[in-house]
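so my prof wants the structure for this chain in the tokens format not the other one, which i didnt know existed until like an hour ago. anyway here's the sequence
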Amino acid sequence: MWNLSTGAKLALLGLESVKKLQKTAVTLAFQDGTGTGGRDRIFDSANGLAGFADYVHDYVGVGGSTSNNFCPKILAAAAGYIEVPAGTFSTEAEGDQVILSVHRGGSFQEVFRNSVLHLFAVSRPADADTTEGASPLVIITKDGGAFVSGSPTNGINFTVDVDGNVVITTDPATDADMVLKGLGLVAGDALFGRLYANTVVTGNSTSAVRADGRVGLSGVEINMSAGVGITVGVYATVTDVEMYV
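here's what i got, hopefully its the right format
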């Protein structure tokens, strides 16, 4: 099990789902399999969907249609369309007054959006409010790219599986599994990892948003099937992050 910091617990308890974007129109049609690779689409003959491009990987709620009132994941969006997974919609012409909305908040996925993972060669602290106890062996990001606290670039994101567990790291741009890796900074065996929210706060803190997990070959929170040994200047890869909540 992950150890959540006090700040993370408070963030999860205090969050409410907030409406970020809503559109009401009679120009929205539903298309079966017309998108990229056979994806379904919401098509807007008035080209008014550009704002949804900021919410790729979030979910769009649909209301007011005749037969397509669902809440699918947004895989791509442009002025004229929103793409969602294949098999979501049945073909439906425009004409109904359809409401589309995107909400955020109230979830682990939101609290740790664009996060970063540090691995350490010391035992996991008693709680995630306690200082790390060492410098990180490696900083794990999307594709091993550079990460700057407060910037979304190369941050780690999570989605949910069919059972509602937050277990899969995904790339919002492609909806594919992220490659989580980083260049070794210090040699040693990784024993625990600390997942930081997008704004990284290290050291002792009861307000920092972060979570601590064990590192191992398999069966723990942070799995490295190729081995937990970190070599300076060599990429280390996290093969699986099991984020059950």
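also thought this was worth mentioning. The CA atoms of residues 41 and 83 lie 5 Å apart.
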